[in-house]
Amino acid sequence: MQNYIEKTINFVKKTLENAEAGHDWFHIERVFKTALNINRAEHGNELIVSFAALLHDIADPKFNNGDEELGPNVAADFLKSIHVDDDIITQVKLIIQHMSFKNSFDNPGFSSKELQIVQDADRLDAIGAIGIARAFTYGGYKNRVLYDPEIKPELHHSKESYKNTTAPTINHFYEKLLLLKDLMNTDSGKAIAQKRHDFMNTYLEQFYSEWEGN
Questions:
Q1: How do residues 199-213 score in pLDDT, each as one tens digit?
Q2: Is the dihedral of CA 205, 138, 93, 107 positive or negative?
Q3: What 8-state DSSP symbol labels residue 165?
Q4: Alpha-helix residue ranges (DSSP H) falling in the chain
């Protein structure tokens, strides 16, 4: 198993060496560590959890013209190249296809303990102190304003609406980040999410105070 993981880590590091800072190797590493921590309590298949965590953003649609099939296919091709069993590859591919927030607007059609674990780990990296940093990093990458009091947050009800938003970064807290606490699957994920959720609320209070010059 360790040989598989080392090969996967090397592949991901090389593939993402020029990635946007919120979706780079360090993001993958954090999700990988968090997923393993959650898995110790949830008792999923550690190899599937590891592969899915390491490969979940290998070709993120946001940076690949919206192509949602590229990432799962790149992950599957790599796992085939290192001779991973087909049933494990199938599970990893399904997890990558179904774990993103935007896909939660669709009827998922697939669930597994391993999906729940990796999904929680990825969502945890989107909230709290690091989640705030990642949100503003991506907002800067997309040249979005920090905040505009005239543009109110919009709760999206479809994948297309969510994908096509160009709202200020602060709106993203209300349109996604503050919603994630209640979308956690595992008890471990819920406990960690509560602390990070509370931190984001404290941050927003300070942000609005400073916005008014206080």
A1: 999 999 999 999 999
A2: positive
A3: -
A4: 2-15, 25-42, 46-55, 70-81, 86-98, 113-124, 128-141, 159-163, 169-175, 187-211
Residue type, position 10, single letter: N
Nearest to residue 171, comparing CAs of 191, 147, 193? 147
26: Cα separation from own chain's centroid: 12
| pTM listed for this prediction | 0.90
Q: How many CB atoms lie within 10 A of CB 165?
A: 16
Q: pLDDT tens-digit profile of 161-181? A: 666 778 999 999 999 999 999
Contact status, residue 31 vs residue 106, Cβ threshold 8 Å: no
E strands, the chain, are none
Q: Which residues in 168-202 are b (16+ Cβ under 10 Å) and which e?
A: bbbbbbebbbbbbbeebbbebbeebbeebbeebee
DSSP secondary-structure letter at 177?
G
Estimate to the nearest angstrom the gap between the alpha carbon of 109 and the chain centroid.
19
Output Rg (C-alpha) for the chain, integer angstroms: 17
d(CA 8, CA 50): 9
